[in-house]
Amino acid sequence: MKGNILYMVLLLGLFSCRTNPKMHTDLNYMQNIEQVATEKSVEITSSTIQPGDQLVILVTAKDLDVVKPFNQNYSSSEVITTNSTAGGNTPNQGLTTVTGPTYIVDTNGNIDFPTLGKLNTSNKSLIQFKEELTQMLTKFIINPTVNLRLVNFKVTVLGEVNKQGDYTLANGHGTILNALGLAGDLTLYGKREDILIIRTENGQITHGKINLHDANLISSPYYNLKQGDAIIVSANKARNISAKQNPNTGIYLTAASIAISAVAIIVSLISK
Which of 71, 117, 159, 197 would disulfide-bridge 222, Cβ 3.0–4.6 Å? Predict the structure, then answer.
């Protein structure tokens, strides 16, 4: 009797600690990076400027008086602070400061620029628009320098990550890895081989998927993020199984184990 009870206790302990092989998840990213890195180069695709974008444009030159009309109503004391963390909840982390007049792109893709008037940004990247603006300014300024920044480049990360939310990416550029890093990486329950990206650009909605296990993701058009991208990390089988289980199952197993152990001790004492 005593031996049977002790055997049951050990058996229960083994089953309660056993890892379900179906719940196993490979957590390693870009497993074939050595092969891919030597065969392919990453092509950085620039986002086009979108309605609602907040552009900071500062024109400089040797003669500061000449550029004043193009920096209308701007004071050097004006500073825009952006934070790369969701909602700016982490003080002084990822903070960047940008100075210059601010322009909001309207629904038609235009901004009202001092002296030059209405300028259209539609279907232009930051680099293209900067070059175009610089060329326009050469008619009025000798060797002008245009500093142009997009300060509200935001993406949204949802699902099985440690910190869901909206994130601002510095310099108007970032990759899927940058965004997931800001979100504190995936949880153990995140489905790493099936990351969904939803993109809205020029009024069109598209979507694509990325497999973090495969280094070929660097060739995906969704590797380099664009303004307003939504990144959704779905749950793996382990999360789905866990969600279906009674949350008190672990407590019940522990209680049963303790009860059986107590019975075994009592039987052992009685048999002596």
Answer: 197
